[in-house]
Specification:
By secondary structure, the chain is of the alpha+beta class. It has 2 domains: about 35 residues; about 50 residues, no CATH class. Helix content is about 45%, strand content about 15%. The longest helix is centred in the middle third of the chain and has 11 residues. The chain is elongated, with a radius of gyration of 19 Å. The N terminus is likely disordered.
Length: about 110
Amino acid sequence: MPKKGGHHGNFRRWTTKEIMILQENAGKHSDKELGDMLGRTYQSVRFMRYRLGLPPKRAVYEVTKGYEVLARGTAEECAKKLGVKPETIRYYASPSRYKKAKNVDNVTLATRLE
């Protein structure tokens, strides 16, 4: 019979110190990195970060066409510079985009740097 109270499995409460570390480092490190620092799973970190309204680490992309660098920054920054949607930048970095690229000199691609 499941336990009452909505708790699933074993868990430990977040300490004030852990929450302070999370608040100081959210946006600078990935949930996995924070989990490693705190001895917690990335899911636990992601949930608490979301609950506290803290931002995730933003991925940085470099968008190229051939050997020319068109933009570097977050998906939103690159999209604004190139006049496309952020989803397009993420697509440029996807494995399927790379597979479809026959001649990389004429194709816009993105590389996720972080």
